[in-house]
Amino acid sequence: MSDKLKGLHVVMFESRLAETLGELVRLQGGIPFSAPAMKEVPIENNPDAFSFAEKLFGGGIDVVIFLTGVGARALMKVLETRYKREEVLEAFRKVIIVPRGPKPIRVLKEWNVPFAVTVPEPNTWKDVLNAIDQHKESVPVEGRAVAVQEYGVSNADLLRGLGERGAKVVRVPVYHWALPDDLGPLKEAIRRIVDGKMDVVMFTTAVQVEHVFRVAGQLGLVEGLREALKKLVTASVGPDCSEAIRSHGLQVDVEPQSPKMGPLVLATAERAGEILKSKGKSPLPPLKRKGGKGVL
Fold first, then answer.
1. CA 279 – CA 159 distance, rounded (Å)
2. What is the pLDDT of residues 103-158, one digit of tens each?
3. Residue 268 backbone class (left: φ over 0; alpha: ψ -120 to 50; beta: rest)
4. Using one digit for the tens of pLDDT, what is the confidence trace for 39-59?
5. Does the structure show a pLDDT above 50 at 10?
6. Which domains does the chain have, with CATH numbers?
7. What is the largest CA-CA distance in the chain?
8. For tag attachment on the chain, is the N or C end more exposed, with fewer CB atoms within 10 Å?
9. How far apart are the C-alpha atoms of 102 and 135, rounded to whole Å?
């Protein structure tokens, strides 16, 4: 338990692990406001996945890049509607596998599927390409069919980088992201930020950034949001997320060395006070609660 975020109102846009992130903020003394910015939408009838499977079984795929553990499991779930799991796993064992980070590696180990390289942290698309460049003998991509398991938002930079290296890229979108069904908390968070009622904003994926600005556009508050965010502490979980933030003309104040929620909260707690002070902003008083229950 710490008090380094004591008195600071922290907006979080995380969906799946919102409760966990909120608890981490509370452990640092912060006052979390949860405003989920996205929901996962599985592609149940996935022609791209089945087209990929046909190529995989037919020897038409040379390399498979798994970008996320969740995406790898989702892909298997889709393929199991037509094929036996062991058939899919055996096909994976016959090609070169490149996992982006520890989560897809964990899945591959569960599947007993070997992989060719380990991509170093922070596991960005640049790190994936660098790992491929450094292991050209074990991961040849020039003239090869390289399948990329996508994770919601297609990474144009990664696809372009593979193409520049002579790869024949096969996109395999497994799920995508949509706005949450209930936009109430997100709209309220945006209004509070614009009204100067928040101290810290915490982004844990690039998709959240795009969705926050999309909803701000619906409210006619894009410029107001952008200007308000300049006065707060903007914390990003990692490089990809930071790129999305900067694309909107904003500065990233905190980015942990390890792109995970725990390090994100710790890094934010360590620096938030001094950053707010440098921006001439003092922590806000606790927000009032309604009906005995916290609105946060």
1. 39
2. 899 999 999 999 999 999 888 899 999 999 999 999 999 999 999 998 766 788 99
3. alpha
4. 987 766 788 899 999 999 999
5. yes
6. 9-38+179-278 (3.40.50.10090), 41-177 (3.40.50.10090)
7. 65
8. N
9. 19
3-state DSSP assignment of residue 72: helix
Single pTM value for the model? 0.68
pLDDT of residue 243: 87
H or E stretch at 65: strand 63-66
Q: Which of 16, 38, 42, 30 is nearest to 209 (CA)?
A: 38
Tens-place pLDDT, residues 154-209: 788 999 999 999 999 999 988 778 899 999 999 999 999 999 999 999 999 989 99
How many Cβ atoms from other residues are within 10 Å of residue 169's Cβ?
17
Q: Running DSSP on this structure, what letter comes out for residue 265?
A: H
Sequence letter at residue 140: P
Q: Which long-range contacts (CB under 8 A, 24 or more apart) does 155-163 make?
A: 155/67, 155/125, 155/240, 157/125, 157/126, 158/125, 158/128, 158/129, 161/125, 161/129, 162/129, 162/132
| Nearest Cα to Cα of residue 9 among 230, 292, 28 | 28
Nearest alpha-carbon partner for 240 in 227, 229, 255: 255
What per-residue confidence (pLDDT) applies to 286?
A: 54
Angle separating helix axes 18-27 and 261-278, nearest 10 degrees: 50
